[in-house]
Amino acid sequence: MNDDVRRAWAYLAAVAEPPCTPLIGLVDDLGPVEAANAIRSRSVPSAHRGVLRHTEARAATDTSGPDLDTCDRLGARLVTRDDPDWPAWQLLSLDRASTAARGGAPLALWARGPVPLPAVAERSVALVGSRAASSYGDYVAGMMAGDLVADGWTVVSGGAYGIDGAAHRSALAAGGRTAAVLACGIDRDYPAGHAQLLREIGERGAVLTEYPPGTTAAKHRFLTRNRLVAALSSAVVVVEAGRRSGAANTAAWAKRIGRPLGAVPGAVTSATSVGANAMIADGDAVLVVDAAAAVALAAPDGHDLKPESRSTAIDGLPRDQTLVLEALPARGGLTVDEIALVSGVRVADVLRALAGLDLAGLVDGSQGTWQLVR
Amino acid sequence: MNDDVRRAWAYLAAVAEPPCTPLIGLVDDLGPVEAANAIRSRSVPSAHRGVLRHTEARAATDTSGPDLDTCDRLGARLVTRDDPDWPAWQLLSLDRASTAARGGAPLALWARGPVPLPAVAERSVALVGSRAASSYGDYVAGMMAGDLVADGWTVVSGGAYGIDGAAHRSALAAGGRTAAVLACGIDRDYPAGHAQLLREIGERGAVLTEYPPGTTAAKHRFLTRNRLVAALSSAVVVVEAGRRSGAANTAAWAKRIGRPLGAVPGAVTSATSVGANAMIADGDAVLVVDAAAAVALAAPDGHDLKPESRSTAIDGLPRDQTLVLEALPARGGLTVDEIALVSGVRVADVLRALAGLDLAGLVDGSQGTWQLVR
């Protein structure tokens, strides 16, 4: 990526408060450099006029230089929608019309840590819950995180006090992979008491955020961040949650975008389990008692989500079929247009490839979208 | 009931280990006196030859005299299938072919206490669980039992240590109605430490058993007794249960005969909640956090199961229609033959009454059996 393009992406990543679906549409149409210029000059194509409103406040303020300097200084990177490190299919669920209105995909992600983002999201369970966790919640989060990473799963959470912190710490202590999705800039240690923890996650796992450097944590950003926690995980497990809890918001996102949702039960006398028990009672969440149950939720048919096992299945197929097959997620389905986007195969060739894969019994299009046959 | 008939019933109630479906068939065909004579003389009709095997061991031992003396001395009563105090429709579920093979209805019940058996069963919740309950389980059982009786529900349980005892005691303390179903004779205080508790239940609620006086508690009798706990309740709630628990057997009976099943969640770190959590996780039980949730389970549409509200609905109907409507249970359906049995209306008249009720939108026969329309 040349500097102009990188500067354009950094400008675009800051010019509208994420998520901003109209902005993504503009960038998809014009490319990042043209899109940035159009916004700066307030002269966007009429089809994208909606972008003006979202970018009005910040269009004249270009922080892309300092933002990229901060990023470099921290050893972080700016990952964009056209980057091989972009977790494309995991985030596709946020692109769908029904969810984009309330959330939408991120335009770019700022990330640090040795683990590539698609690898973070490939085989991962989100453990989320109250900041004001009980010792029971801390214990269960720690136990599950340790067992999950021992089994090769990534533990995704939000870096907060309470359940999040217990999950991250236990994953690190077990020598496993963990990812923290922030509601502030990659340069911010929030909460301050987790500065050391976030540093360790950044050294051994992944810290990521859609907010440009310097962005402070704010209430609406926690809610916006929660959709990424859900989207980047194969399943979401609420370990402990009171009657009102941010975890309920993450859980709602999991349901909305089709991620399996679990919850850990607790004593009916415990205020910190009211929310988790209610999710189970209402049929929104499956009761989960341990890491094995979380894995069963994330990979319900015992299908191993590791990339190597998927590639084994497609040896010897024509190239387009291979690309199309690899574009399909382990769970859920994609439309032909989405497959074309993820695979980079033209729509006409996607259709031809799907026909071949359907004949071979490898894909199924009977549910309205195309999905892998198990 | 004259003495000969009463003696015959007492003889029959002891001559086979319950449950004994073939024996019920014989008594239905011959009446109690003839049936008792046939068994004593080992000359049963060929259609009922199966009875011989079940009665061989005890046919020559007639304890009916002393059993009825014991019964009278305790202020107890022998309730038989032709008695107005027989909880007919609640026990019908045990008569069905699919369940009779493994359990079957009781031939008779020995009972003491001021509450008639149909009233015990009309609006009741069974609270069951481990004998080795934790203080958490004891607390929750007590809280739920107190709230249930305050709301006019009967609390049914098995009189055992642990959850059962906590539920009975709390119901009594709240001035409410509770019933204990025993796995031994009505004259036995089992467990011995609950002698005083069972006495109080017998004075203010109901103690009942299908076992004749003198019968000792035995493992198989607990399992057999559990089906009556389930059948006599509008819903069953497992408050606390370990991995292996008698409560799981009661829960299995609830599922088998179509009673709603709930379970109280507990910490995943608590051995005494493993069973209850598993029932919820497996989708066998609904997660129940309090008495209100148990009531919602027992009367899911808010339909008040009190007899008075049912009778209000049927004012002004022809007599046969009234009887047929009253024969139908609050939940589940009955066949025409079962309705004839419960209502005392001839099959031909049941069919005519159902046709009228169907036209009036009061019953629905589309599910293979006839049920009330809510």
From TrEMBL, chains A, B:
Top-rank lineage group of the source organism: Bacteria
User: Biological process GO terms, please?
Assistant: DNA-mediated transformation
Record protein name field: DNA protecting protein DprA
Spell out the Pfam families in the cross-references.
Answer: DNA_processg_A (PF02481)
Q: Which Gene3D superfamilies match?
A: 3.40.50.450, Winged helix-like DNA-binding domain superfamily/Winged helix DNA-binding domain (1.10.10.10)
According to the entry, every stretch annotated as the Smf/DprA SLOG domain falls at: 78-292
Return the similarity comment: Belongs to the DprA/Smf family.
